Amino acid sequence: MLLTLFFASCRSSKYIDDDQALVTKIQISGVSPALKESSETYISNQIKPNSRVNLFIYNTFNTTKGRYKTKKIRNVGEPPHLLDSAMVDLSANQIRRFLFTKGYFNAKVNPEITVNKKRAHINFNVDEGNAYQIRNIERKFEDGDAKWLFDRDILPKTKVKPNTQYDAAKLLEEREKLYVVMRNNGYYDYLRQYMRVGIDSTLTGNLIDLKINVENPSDSTIHKKYQIDSVYMTIRNYGAMSKKPARRITDSVKRLLFVDETNSFRWKPLERYMYLRSGNYYSLAEENKSYDRLYEMNGFRSVKVQFVKKDSNKLDVHYDFVPRPRMGNQIEGEYTFSSGMSGFNIGNTFSQRNIFGGSEQLEVKLRYGVLFDPRLAGGLSSKIFNNDFQAGVNLVIPRLMVPFHINPGGKFGLPKTTYSMTLQLFDQDRTYSNRYFITSLNYSWYETENKYHSFTPIVLEYRDGRLDSNFRKNLEQEGYQLYVRSNDRQYFGLGTQYTFILNGKKLTSKEDFQYFRGTVDISGNVLDLISSIAKLPANADGEKKIFGVPFLQYAKTEFDYRLYRNLGGNRQFVFRFNPGIAIPYGNNSKLLIFEKSFYSGGMNGIRAWQARTLGPGAYNRQNLSEDLRLNLRNLDQLGEIKLEANAEYRFRILNNFLGAKMNGATFVDMGNVWRLKKDDDLNPGGEFKFNKFLGQVAIGTGFGLRFDSDYFVIRLDAGLKVKDPQFSGSNQWVIKNFFDSKEFKEQYYQTHKPDRYNFIQYNFGIGMPF
């Protein structure tokens, strides 16, 4: 397809007139590598080569008999970018001016145009000349307080220094920093224009002197520092007129007036995140922080913070709110395709905002999904492989609801308390049914801008899982009693979870940083203590019971470490290491339940394998009967230990592809899951051993396309199996069979029916893998 688009776009010049030329190549020569990519941004888009895909689409709908139609279809594809000498001269001048800001005051840019068969190549030849260096810097402040703030907060880290190359961007950065510092320290009237820069380039050699002057306002000898006097809160009612008069509350101590035209809000939950308060000096940072936290409450369509000068150094603050609709409803649907089966999910979410007057949000979610297996006999209803119904309730409160005084504040993010309950009813054809209920209490807050904490002190869950009687009998006859015990059972769980995330907000940035996410999940210790004190009864397997149901006892932890490195422009390298371990003990010591186990493969892991089709260890499903291979899909390839690593190189392919940016990625994934204990009946070869686990690491590689529309990313990855640990010795390197795969696949199918072997696994998803 790409070759077809390439040749079709190359033939596009036949549609233009003889006196026109299609721009097919642009380059800049003579520019230092560090500035080349930035220089290219100053070339006019009107003469940059077209996207081949968009030009092909445009030509498809707008040409006939070798010419363009008189009446053309708009907003389809991209019109051809034709040679325009005015745009070439403008681009050359823009490049020259850019180089001037980087210290190349005598730079020259001469464009060369070559036209051949109505195709134009443009080469901007640049003679940078010698860069100018800063000899001396003279800084003058007309206000002593401004100089004191500059010396304290900016001068120690400034990039504008003697004996460095002139760069206007560094001066703009210094001016912006001074603006922010002044505004954060009460100087409400301070403007960026008060800082002026003069350049003396009359010196011999390529040297300049800088004269930086920070002036006072024209009507004063100093910059005025403003203090907050009174605070006004007004909640507007632009919907149905309220029959009651607006509620008015005055707090004389805080010098605050609260007016609620909707009669539905309480002022204290809102005032908590209004950081510009009476008696404080004005601060731009506090103003922005108020905007951020009040919008994060998700209860207001509009938030405005306005200031009124009361006298020479006093400000009144007016917070103006427009609430969002109190109730909302959203319906979602999706089509699913997995392992040759297809189905759909449909969901409905009802929202009730401001349920208690403090911008709290109540959500009620209903979801139903069904998956059809065409291999099952009978009509449509008989082809249902599984169906899944879920109902959930979430209550989000924008503050920490605890019985003792604690105030993490909202300086870096809105603290939240979340109560949630979920009920799931799941049935899989002739295999398994599950009834699952979970409720939890969660607290989340930011310690700093890049340190996030999530603490769930209470996670209460109940599950009633039932295997189909015939399926259970087959499992028992085949010796899979542990699978029966793991899935055909009831249990209670009462535990605690904690998650810490470092640099989560930087994941969409292109800078160099490290990301870390760590989770700890512990369950059953409190119930074990209660059962020991109360001497509660146990079942035949020795498991203690609460209300006649055994309880879980385990400890689980998982880490996700990533290293992000920017390689210039839109090129990025990412390395990820993702280990985890789950240890059942005490009342649940023999086997970890399905829901708490690790799995490998899938669109965010080792992408050459489908999810839950890799491992554990060297386990090979050939040992199962054909019926068990069919019915145990996604149930037998789990583990208590997980080790995964990924390396991915990301780059830009097209800046404009159907209105989005098309990025590419090449990647290598490796890892597996393992069992903690050896069990030849359950997963022969699946246990973790230090002297063998490296030889049981799966390796996959591949290529991906990412279509970035700025709002979301659509991702398509193709993963290729390189090393498969289910085989032994040199046979693990399955890549050697890729170009002669027919015989290999047929042999595999005969020994693994109905499983088939695929060298390439396609993954379609929304968002980046990591």
Description:
- By secondary structure, the chain is of the alpha+beta class.
- It contains 13 helices and 31 strands.
- It has a 16-stranded antiparallel sheet with strand order 14-15-16-17-18-19-20-21-22-25-26-27-28-29-30-31. The chain has a five-stranded mixed sheet with strand order 10-11-9-13-12, covered by helices on one side. A three-stranded mixed sheet has the order 1-5-4, with helices on one face.
- α1 (2-10) crosses α3 (52-62).
- It is globular.
- The protein starts with a helix and ends with a strand.
- The relative contact order is 0.05.
- InterPro entries: Bac_surfAg_D15, BamA/TamA_POTRA, D15-like.
**Poorly predicted tracts of residues:** none
Proportion of residues in helical segments: 10-25%
Q: What is the tally of helical segments?
A: 13
The chain-level structural class is alpha+beta
Strand count: 31
Rg from C-alpha positions?
33 Å
Task: Note the gap between the termini.
Answer: 29 Å
Strand content: 35-45%
The whole-number mean of residue pLDDT values reads 88
Any idea what the shape is?
globular
Major beta sheet summary: 16 strands, antiparallel
Main sheet: which strands, in order across?
Answer: 14-15-16-17-18-19-20-21-22-25-26-27-28-29-30-31
InterPro entries: Bac_surfAg_D15, BamA/TamA_POTRA, D15-like
Pfam families: Omp85, POTRA
Organism: Sphingobacterium ginsenosidimutans
Protein name: BamA/TamA family outer membrane protein
